[in-house]
């Protein structure tokens, strides 16, 4: 039997139905004890460019830092107490001693909500 070229094999496969091709693949796998699984994509650790290799990692923990109480200090103290489990004196000390962290290592959405609440009370806030 003459050896078929790759083009001749492809021409033969073109004429087959999907069911026939599926049966052929099964027979091929059994005959040669292999699997026709799709190759998984290869992920290369480190980037091609040196500066981009240390690309910014997606942060999942944020700190909410109170940088200023503004004009409505009492409102800011109330919001700090709502966001934390601090008592009145501790919350007042935190607000008086700005800049200080109000929340540490919280999720992005919690940090955004805290920032919005504190800014709504008149405080200046930074999320790091």
Features:
3 strands; alpha+beta; rod-shaped
Poorly predicted segments: 50-55
**What global shape is seen?**
rod-shaped
Largest sheet: 3 strands, antiparallel
Determine the strand fraction and express it as a percent band: 5-15%
CA radius of gyration: 32 Å
How many helices? 6
Biggest sheet, spatial arrangement of strands: 2-1-3
Compute the average pLDDT: 81
Order of helices and strands: HHHEHHEHE
Number of distinct beta strands: 3
Estimated structural class: alpha+beta
Cα distance, first to last residue? 72 Å
Explain the layout of strands and helices.
Layout: H1 6-14, H2 18-32, H3 50-53, E1 62-68, H4 73-83, H5 88-96, E2 100-106, H6 108-120, E3 124-127
Antiparallel strand pairs: 1-2, 1-3
Short description:
The protein has helices spanning 6-14, 18-32, 50-53, 73-83, 88-96, 108-120; strands at 62-68, 100-106, 124-127.
Descriptive account of the structure:
It contains 6 helices and 3 strands. With 128 residues, it is an alpha+beta fold. A 3-stranded antiparallel beta sheet has the order 2-1-3, with helices on one face. The radius of gyration is 32 Å and the shape is rod-shaped. The N and C termini lie far apart (72 Å).
């Amino acid at each position: 039997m003459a050896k078929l070229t790759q083009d001749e094999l492809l021409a033969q496969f073109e004429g087959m139905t999907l069911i026939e091709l599926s049966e052929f693949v099964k027979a091929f796998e059994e005959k040669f004890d292999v699997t026709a699984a799709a190759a998984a994509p290869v992920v290369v650790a480190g980037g091609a460019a040196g500066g981009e290799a240390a690309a910014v990692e997606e942060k999942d923990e944020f700190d909410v830092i109170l940088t200023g109480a503004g004009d409505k200090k009492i409102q800011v103290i109330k919001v700090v107490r709502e966001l934390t489990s601090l008592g009145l004196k501790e919350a007042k000390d935190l607000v008086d001693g700005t800049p200080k962290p109000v929340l540490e290592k919280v999720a992005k959405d919690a940090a955004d909500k805290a920032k919005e609440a504190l800014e709504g009370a008149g405080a200046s806030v930074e999320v790091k």
